[in-house]
Amino acid sequence: MSKRKIGMWMYNNSGGAKVQEKLILKLKERDIETIPELDLRFARGYKNSIICDGVNILDLDLFFSYNAGEQTVAQVYMYKTIDQFIPTINSFKAFELSEDKFRSNLVLSQAGVTTADFFLCHRETPQFVIEKFEEWKKMVYKPIDGWGGNGMAFLDSRQMLDALMPFINQTDIRHIYLEKFVENDFTDFRVDIVDNEFVACYGRKANAREWRTNITSGGSIILREANDKLIDVAKKASEALGMDISGVDILYDREKEEYVVLEVNGIPAFATPEQEKIGLDFNDKKIDLIVDLIDRKTNK
User: Fold this and answer.
1) What is the pTM of this model?
2) Looking at residue 131, which CATH number applies to its domain?
3) Of 231, 117, 116, 123, nearest to 176 (Cα)?
4) pLDDT tens figures, 152-188
């Protein structure tokens, strides 16, 4: 059997470079060569090849895409293209599904995973938004494909709702996506899953002036312990979306006294050096599981 060779595009900030180095070394121990820093936005397509940094991507045994912050339309287009010819982690189908809040929540709910109540309509039918607000009283507007809490709005009054609609009409947004607000303590759970194996559980806490727990919105990391129910919910959500690697964000609904899946992230970050200092020590376990996953997927 010829030597296996994979491509990798890994984020380098916040400790990512160190994680990449460990991944490459552990893959080398399995006799798997890694070509890092393959940013697909600079790829060039030909009749029989897709060349990126001098490498024909189609000759690789697998492509590992793990960079959320630097994705571009061109990169995602090439990601989708190469997924038709070689294995990718995550598969593009799973990645694309997880990026779409409406479609992913629809799949989750059909699979029996508890989500917030959600609603979608075209922006040319704002009367349905008003009807939904009158029913729910509190709801959250979210961009269908946003991340990090960007573009979200908490709507708990008609004044807030009336201010949102002109903003939407000035954009190219076609659909309005809403979720009923889940009564919670403004903390969440992030459960990391790799190859259907539990990796770690931690949480995020919103700051005193915010309702969003996202780190980019001022939230902070907190230590949390997972229980069997949390792990089961996270695994079921990850499996429903076909994810190889996922970070499942979960809220505890204080009214219904149940766990609610908020979203499933396809590129959950490793613990940063600062987070490791406060007790998040799951990186090595996650690296080992990813190496096992790559080994299995490239073992022809």
Assistant:
1) 0.91
2) 3.30.1490
3) 123
4) 888 888 888 888 888 777 777 888 999 999 998 888 9
- Residue 208's pLDDT is what? 67
**CB-based contacts of 275-284 (< 8 A; 24+ apart in sequence):** 275/202, 275/221, 276/15, 278/221, 278/223, 279/223, 280/200, 280/202, 280/221, 280/223, 282/192, 282/199, 282/200, 283/15, 283/19, 283/22, 284/22
Separation CA 135–CA 295 (nearest Å): 50
Q: Give the CA distances from residue 31 to residues 21, 124, 221, 298, 299, in Å, rounded to whole numbers and listed in that order.
A: 15, 56, 37, 11, 11
Q: Is the residue at 51 inside a domain?
A: yes
- Please name the amino acid found at residue 232: D
What is the CATH classification number for the domain harbouring 268? 3.30.470.20
DSSP state, residue 115: B
Angle at 240 between CA 105 and CA 297, to 5 degrees: 135
Say whether both 239 and 107 belong to one domain.
yes
- Ranges under pLDDT 50 in the chain: none
Structure tokens at 171: 């954009």
